[in-house]
Amino acid sequence: MDNPKLLYLSILLIVLLTSYLIAMRDNLPKLIKSASAWVIIFSCFVAGYGLWQDLNNRETILGKKNASEITLRMNEDGHFHAKVLVNDVEIEFLIDTGATHIVLSQEDAEKLDFDLSKLIFWGKSNTANGIVATAPVRLQSLKLGQFSDKNVLAYINQGIMKQSLLGMSFLNNFSSVEFQRETLYLRL
Length: 188
Prior knowledge:
This protein has helices at about 5-25, 30-55, 105-110, 170; strands at about 70-75, 80-85, 90-95, 105, 125, 130-145, 145-155, 165, 175-180, 185. By secondary structure, it is an alpha+beta fold. It folds into 2 domains: about 5-55; about 70-185, Beta Barrel (Cathepsin D, subunit A, domain 1), CATH 2.40.70.10. The strands form 2 sheets. Strands 2, 3, 4, 5, 6, 7 and 8 form a 7-stranded mixed β-sheet that branches. The chain starts with a helix and ends with a strand.
């Protein structure tokens, strides 16, 4: 919106509010009381929406009820995400049952100090975006909650990825993988 139009609408709003207040001057206390009630109601809705967003952006809950169980809550995007310590660096992964392996985005690979210019992208992976080249790497350590592993095979994707993936090679480490509504249970 351009400035002259904004100025015009602001003046129009002031004129309308002033004329309304003049017309309602006999009932001004009642008007103020009603306006205050609406401000409080609106504030409650805004606060409630903010709290709802916080609840939907729940962090991963790790083994709170059972030491041999990792519990992940569904994110607001409808997917399960997990913050995993890889080589002592926190990386956020997307749990992907459609992925065969652990796949790192180039951005996350650089966080883990992999030199992309020295990698050989000789592998091929079929993705929703077509065939992409991959480079195999070894992760010194991988830790999620009570689960940890060493010398883990992973792949760095040469294509563009929004987020690294924890595929079936990771999920197969668990005795049970169970989805219940908005919760994913990984049992050791």
